[in-house]
Amino acid sequence: MNALPPGWARRDPAVICLGLTAMDQVWTVEALPDRAGKTRAADHASGGGGMAATAAVAVAHLGGQARFWGRAGKDAAGLAMRRELALEGVDVEQFRLFPGARSSVSCVLVDPAGERLIVNFRGADLPNEADWLPLDQVSGAGAVLADPRWVDGAAAVFAAARKAGVPTVLDADVAEAAVFEKLLPLTDHAIFSEQALHAFAGSVNALEHVAGFGCAVSAVTRGADGVNWIEDGAHHHRAAFPVEVVDTNGAGDVFHGAWAMAIAAGADTGSAAEFASAAAALKCTRRGGRAGIPDFTETLELWRSTR
Protein backbone atom coordinates (compact mmCIF):
# COMPACT_ATOMS: atom_id res chain seq x y z
CA MET A 1 0.00 0.00 0.00
CA ASN A 2 1.27 3.46 -0.83
CA ALA A 3 2.14 5.82 2.00
CA LEU A 4 -0.53 8.40 2.59
CA PRO A 5 -0.10 11.91 1.17
CA PRO A 6 0.92 14.66 3.60
CA GLY A 7 -1.76 15.40 6.16
CA TRP A 8 -3.97 12.44 5.30
CA ALA A 9 -5.25 10.59 8.38
CA ARG A 10 -6.90 7.77 6.44
CA ARG A 11 -6.89 6.19 2.99
CA ASP A 12 -10.63 5.73 2.47
CA PRO A 13 -12.55 8.76 3.80
CA ALA A 14 -16.31 8.97 3.31
CA VAL A 15 -17.67 11.73 1.08
CA ILE A 16 -21.33 12.54 0.47
CA CYS A 17 -21.89 14.07 -2.98
CA LEU A 18 -25.27 15.73 -3.56
CA GLY A 19 -26.63 17.25 -6.73
CA LEU A 20 -26.82 16.68 -10.45
CA THR A 21 -26.74 13.40 -12.30
CA ALA A 22 -27.25 13.49 -16.07
CA MET A 23 -27.18 10.98 -18.89
CA ASP A 24 -24.43 12.17 -21.25
CA GLN A 25 -24.60 11.59 -25.00
CA VAL A 26 -21.06 12.28 -26.20
CA TRP A 27 -20.06 12.88 -29.82
CA THR A 28 -16.45 13.22 -30.99
CA VAL A 29 -16.27 15.83 -33.79
CA GLU A 30 -13.53 17.41 -35.90
CA ALA A 31 -14.43 20.92 -34.74
CA LEU A 32 -16.93 22.46 -32.34
CA PRO A 33 -19.70 24.19 -34.33
CA ASP A 34 -19.85 27.99 -34.45
CA ARG A 35 -23.00 28.27 -36.57
CA ALA A 36 -26.16 26.40 -37.52
CA GLY A 37 -25.75 23.39 -39.79
CA LYS A 38 -24.82 19.72 -39.77
CA THR A 39 -21.61 18.02 -38.74
CA ARG A 40 -20.40 14.42 -38.73
CA ALA A 41 -19.25 12.63 -35.58
CA ALA A 42 -16.23 10.33 -35.62
CA ASP A 43 -17.45 8.51 -32.52
CA HIS A 44 -20.35 8.34 -30.08
CA ALA A 45 -20.77 7.08 -26.54
CA SER A 46 -23.35 7.39 -23.79
CA GLY A 47 -23.09 7.13 -20.04
CA GLY A 48 -23.76 8.83 -16.75
CA GLY A 49 -22.50 12.34 -16.09
CA GLY A 50 -23.38 15.33 -13.95
CA MET A 51 -21.22 17.27 -11.54
CA ALA A 52 -21.91 15.71 -8.15
CA ALA A 53 -22.49 12.23 -9.58
CA THR A 54 -19.18 12.20 -11.45
CA ALA A 55 -17.43 13.63 -8.39
CA ALA A 56 -18.80 10.64 -6.45
CA VAL A 57 -17.41 8.26 -9.08
CA ALA A 58 -14.04 10.01 -8.77
CA VAL A 59 -14.07 9.47 -5.01
CA ALA A 60 -14.85 5.78 -5.55
CA HIS A 61 -12.12 5.35 -8.20
CA LEU A 62 -9.63 7.06 -5.90
CA GLY A 63 -10.45 4.63 -3.11
CA GLY A 64 -12.80 6.67 -0.95
CA GLN A 65 -16.25 5.77 0.33
CA ALA A 66 -18.55 7.59 -2.09
CA ARG A 67 -22.23 8.24 -1.44
CA PHE A 68 -24.44 9.96 -3.99
CA TRP A 69 -27.55 11.76 -2.79
CA GLY A 70 -29.75 13.02 -5.60
CA ARG A 71 -32.87 12.86 -7.74
CA ALA A 72 -33.83 11.65 -11.19
CA GLY A 73 -36.92 10.53 -13.01
CA LYS A 74 -38.00 6.91 -12.83
CA ASP A 75 -37.36 6.63 -16.56
CA ALA A 76 -34.85 4.83 -18.75
CA ALA A 77 -32.14 7.43 -18.11
CA GLY A 78 -32.69 7.47 -14.35
CA LEU A 79 -32.63 3.69 -14.05
CA ALA A 80 -29.48 3.49 -16.17
CA MET A 81 -27.71 6.18 -14.14
CA ARG A 82 -28.55 4.52 -10.83
CA ARG A 83 -27.34 1.15 -12.10
CA GLU A 84 -24.14 2.65 -13.51
CA LEU A 85 -23.28 4.51 -10.31
CA ALA A 86 -23.73 1.33 -8.28
CA LEU A 87 -21.43 -0.56 -10.67
CA GLU A 88 -18.81 2.18 -10.18
CA GLY A 89 -18.81 1.48 -6.44
CA VAL A 90 -20.93 4.45 -5.36
CA ASP A 91 -23.52 4.04 -2.59
CA VAL A 92 -26.87 4.94 -4.22
CA GLU A 93 -29.21 4.28 -1.31
CA GLN A 94 -30.18 7.97 -1.25
CA PHE A 95 -30.41 8.37 -5.03
CA ARG A 96 -34.17 8.54 -5.45
CA LEU A 97 -36.06 8.01 -8.70
CA PHE A 98 -39.41 9.82 -8.92
CA PRO A 99 -42.26 8.46 -11.08
CA GLY A 100 -43.53 11.03 -13.58
CA ALA A 101 -40.35 13.12 -13.43
CA ARG A 102 -37.88 13.44 -16.32
CA SER A 103 -34.16 12.87 -15.82
CA SER A 104 -31.43 15.28 -16.84
CA VAL A 105 -29.77 14.59 -20.21
CA SER A 106 -26.73 16.28 -21.79
CA CYS A 107 -25.34 16.53 -25.31
CA VAL A 108 -21.54 16.74 -25.21
CA LEU A 109 -19.42 17.54 -28.28
CA VAL A 110 -15.67 16.88 -27.95
CA ASP A 111 -13.06 18.07 -30.47
CA PRO A 112 -9.58 16.58 -31.18
CA ALA A 113 -7.98 19.00 -28.69
CA GLY A 114 -10.20 17.66 -25.92
CA GLU A 115 -12.30 20.81 -25.61
CA ARG A 116 -16.02 20.33 -25.25
CA LEU A 117 -19.39 21.98 -25.80
CA ILE A 118 -22.24 20.91 -23.50
CA VAL A 119 -25.99 21.39 -23.87
CA ASN A 120 -27.84 20.23 -20.75
CA PHE A 121 -31.52 19.57 -20.08
CA ARG A 122 -31.78 19.74 -16.30
CA GLY A 123 -34.80 17.48 -16.06
CA ALA A 124 -38.42 18.26 -15.25
CA ASP A 125 -40.94 17.72 -12.46
CA LEU A 126 -38.29 16.74 -9.92
CA PRO A 127 -39.44 17.70 -6.40
CA ASN A 128 -37.40 20.40 -4.68
CA GLU A 129 -38.17 19.24 -1.14
CA ALA A 130 -35.25 17.75 0.77
CA ASP A 131 -37.19 16.45 3.78
CA TRP A 132 -36.52 12.83 2.81
CA LEU A 133 -32.75 13.12 3.12
CA PRO A 134 -31.26 11.26 6.15
CA LEU A 135 -29.41 14.28 7.53
CA ASP A 136 -28.44 12.35 10.66
CA GLN A 137 -25.98 10.43 8.47
CA VAL A 138 -24.00 13.55 7.57
CA SER A 139 -21.97 13.42 10.79
CA GLY A 140 -20.47 10.12 9.65
CA ALA A 141 -18.88 11.65 6.55
CA GLY A 142 -15.47 13.25 6.30
CA ALA A 143 -16.73 15.91 3.88
CA VAL A 144 -19.86 16.87 1.99
CA LEU A 145 -19.78 18.07 -1.63
CA ALA A 146 -22.69 19.65 -3.46
CA ASP A 147 -23.26 21.38 -6.77
CA PRO A 148 -25.84 24.18 -7.19
CA ARG A 149 -28.44 22.24 -9.19
CA TRP A 150 -30.59 21.14 -6.22
CA VAL A 151 -30.49 24.19 -4.00
CA ASP A 152 -32.83 22.99 -1.25
CA GLY A 153 -30.95 19.71 -0.97
CA ALA A 154 -27.55 21.42 -0.89
CA ALA A 155 -28.69 23.92 1.74
CA ALA A 156 -30.10 21.15 3.93
CA VAL A 157 -27.03 18.93 3.78
CA PHE A 158 -24.62 21.86 4.19
CA ALA A 159 -26.51 23.12 7.24
CA ALA A 160 -26.40 19.63 8.77
CA ALA A 161 -22.68 19.38 7.98
CA ARG A 162 -21.97 22.78 9.50
CA LYS A 163 -23.80 21.71 12.69
CA ALA A 164 -21.80 18.47 12.81
CA GLY A 165 -18.45 20.11 12.07
CA VAL A 166 -18.09 18.33 8.71
CA PRO A 167 -16.33 20.37 5.95
CA THR A 168 -18.48 21.47 3.02
CA VAL A 169 -17.26 21.78 -0.58
CA LEU A 170 -19.31 23.65 -3.20
CA ASP A 171 -18.81 22.84 -6.88
CA ALA A 172 -19.74 26.36 -7.92
CA ASP A 173 -20.78 26.03 -11.53
CA VAL A 174 -22.86 28.68 -13.31
CA ALA A 175 -26.03 29.50 -11.35
CA GLU A 176 -28.21 32.43 -10.42
CA ALA A 177 -26.77 34.88 -7.88
CA ALA A 178 -29.53 34.00 -5.41
CA VAL A 179 -28.30 30.39 -5.37
CA PHE A 180 -24.80 31.38 -4.33
CA GLU A 181 -26.11 33.92 -1.83
CA LYS A 182 -27.98 31.06 -0.14
CA LEU A 183 -25.23 28.43 -0.26
CA LEU A 184 -21.98 30.37 0.25
CA PRO A 185 -22.66 31.24 3.92
CA LEU A 186 -22.83 27.46 4.53
CA THR A 187 -19.73 26.67 2.45
CA ASP A 188 -16.20 26.03 3.74
CA HIS A 189 -14.55 25.42 0.35
CA ALA A 190 -16.14 27.31 -2.56
CA ILE A 191 -14.54 26.20 -5.84
CA PHE A 192 -15.79 28.17 -8.86
CA SER A 193 -15.26 27.71 -12.56
CA GLU A 194 -13.97 30.90 -14.21
CA GLN A 195 -17.23 31.40 -16.06
CA ALA A 196 -19.31 31.03 -12.92
CA LEU A 197 -17.04 33.26 -10.84
CA HIS A 198 -17.08 36.14 -13.29
CA ALA A 199 -20.83 35.84 -13.84
CA PHE A 200 -21.43 36.01 -10.09
CA ALA A 201 -18.70 38.33 -8.82
CA GLY A 202 -17.33 40.20 -11.83
CA SER A 203 -13.71 40.26 -12.92
CA VAL A 204 -12.20 42.51 -10.21
CA ASN A 205 -11.53 41.12 -6.72
CA ALA A 206 -13.93 38.27 -7.45
CA LEU A 207 -12.44 35.78 -4.98
CA GLU A 208 -12.43 38.45 -2.28
CA HIS A 209 -16.14 38.92 -2.93
CA VAL A 210 -16.74 35.20 -2.43
CA ALA A 211 -14.61 35.16 0.72
CA GLY A 212 -16.84 37.90 2.10
CA PHE A 213 -19.62 35.33 2.51
CA GLY A 214 -17.53 33.59 5.17
CA CYS A 215 -15.98 30.79 3.10
CA ALA A 216 -12.73 29.53 4.61
CA VAL A 217 -11.38 28.85 1.10
CA SER A 218 -12.48 30.68 -2.06
CA ALA A 219 -11.05 29.12 -5.22
CA VAL A 220 -11.33 29.26 -8.99
CA THR A 221 -10.23 26.54 -11.41
CA ARG A 222 -8.56 27.86 -14.57
CA GLY A 223 -7.98 24.78 -16.68
CA ALA A 224 -4.44 24.68 -18.06
CA ASP A 225 -3.59 27.69 -15.87
CA GLY A 226 -4.19 25.78 -12.66
CA VAL A 227 -6.17 26.85 -9.61
CA ASN A 228 -6.10 30.04 -7.56
CA TRP A 229 -7.49 30.41 -4.06
CA ILE A 230 -7.71 32.71 -1.06
CA GLU A 231 -7.35 31.35 2.47
CA ASP A 232 -6.96 33.45 5.61
CA GLY A 233 -6.61 36.52 3.40
CA ALA A 234 -3.59 35.13 1.51
CA HIS A 235 -3.53 34.35 -2.21
CA HIS A 236 -2.29 30.96 -3.43
CA HIS A 237 -1.77 29.27 -6.79
CA ARG A 238 -1.22 25.69 -7.90
CA ALA A 239 -0.04 25.21 -11.48
CA ALA A 240 -1.67 22.55 -13.60
CA PHE A 241 0.31 19.39 -14.30
CA PRO A 242 1.65 19.44 -17.88
CA VAL A 243 -0.06 16.60 -19.75
CA GLU A 244 -1.17 15.81 -23.28
CA VAL A 245 -4.87 16.64 -23.28
CA VAL A 246 -7.20 14.21 -25.03
CA ASP A 247 -10.59 14.94 -23.43
CA THR A 248 -11.46 17.52 -20.76
CA ASN A 249 -15.00 16.21 -20.24
CA GLY A 250 -15.47 15.49 -16.53
CA ALA A 251 -12.12 16.98 -15.48
CA GLY A 252 -13.71 19.64 -13.29
CA ASP A 253 -15.94 17.08 -11.59
CA VAL A 254 -12.93 14.86 -10.91
CA PHE A 255 -11.07 17.86 -9.50
CA HIS A 256 -13.90 18.64 -7.08
CA GLY A 257 -14.33 15.03 -6.01
CA ALA A 258 -10.60 14.59 -5.39
CA TRP A 259 -10.46 17.88 -3.47
CA ALA A 260 -13.36 16.83 -1.24
CA MET A 261 -11.80 13.42 -0.67
CA ALA A 262 -8.48 14.97 0.35
CA ILE A 263 -10.20 17.35 2.77
CA ALA A 264 -12.20 14.42 4.18
CA ALA A 265 -8.92 12.57 4.74
CA GLY A 266 -7.53 15.48 6.77
CA ALA A 267 -5.38 17.23 4.15
CA ASP A 268 -4.78 20.96 4.23
CA THR A 269 -5.86 23.14 1.32
CA GLY A 270 -2.52 23.12 -0.49
CA SER A 271 -2.30 19.33 -0.35
CA ALA A 272 -5.92 19.02 -1.51
CA ALA A 273 -5.23 21.33 -4.45
CA GLU A 274 -2.21 19.28 -5.52
CA PHE A 275 -4.02 15.94 -5.23
CA ALA A 276 -7.05 17.27 -7.11
CA SER A 277 -4.87 18.82 -9.82
CA ALA A 278 -3.07 15.52 -10.38
CA ALA A 279 -6.32 13.55 -10.60
CA ALA A 280 -7.88 16.03 -13.04
CA ALA A 281 -4.74 16.13 -15.19
CA LEU A 282 -4.68 12.36 -15.57
CA LYS A 283 -8.35 12.35 -16.46
CA CYS A 284 -7.62 14.81 -19.30
CA THR A 285 -5.19 12.33 -20.87
CA ARG A 286 -7.99 9.79 -21.45
CA ARG A 287 -11.31 9.77 -23.22
CA GLY A 288 -14.54 9.53 -21.30
CA GLY A 289 -15.90 11.62 -18.46
CA ARG A 290 -15.77 8.65 -16.09
CA ALA A 291 -13.79 6.01 -17.97
CA GLY A 292 -10.77 8.29 -17.76
CA ILE A 293 -10.81 8.77 -13.98
CA PRO A 294 -7.49 7.59 -12.46
CA ASP A 295 -7.02 5.51 -9.35
CA PHE A 296 -5.22 6.50 -6.16
CA THR A 297 -1.85 5.01 -7.09
CA GLU A 298 -1.69 6.75 -10.48
CA THR A 299 -2.68 10.07 -8.96
CA LEU A 300 -0.12 9.81 -6.19
CA GLU A 301 2.63 8.89 -8.66
CA LEU A 302 1.97 11.95 -10.83
CA TRP A 303 1.77 14.20 -7.79
CA ARG A 304 5.05 12.91 -6.34
CA SER A 305 6.82 13.11 -9.70
CA THR A 306 6.85 16.90 -9.44
CA ARG A 307 7.56 17.31 -5.74
TrEMBL record:
Q: Give the organism the record lists.
A: Paracoccus alkanivorans
Q: Which residues span the membrane?
A: none
Task: Recall the GO molecular function terms of this protein's record.
Answer: kinase activity
Q: Which Pfam families match?
A: PfkB
Q: Which SUPFAM superfamilies match?
A: Ribokinase-like
Segments forming domain Carbohydrate kinase PfkB: 15-294
Keywords, sorted A to Z = Kinase, Transferase
Q: Which GO terms describe its cellular component?
A: cytosol
Report the superkingdom from the record.
Bacteria
The entry's protein name is: Sugar kinase
Q: Which PANTHER family does the UniProt entry name for this protein?
A: SUGAR KINASE, SULFOFRUCTOSE KINASE
Q: Which InterPro entries match?
A: PfkB_dom, Ribokinase-like
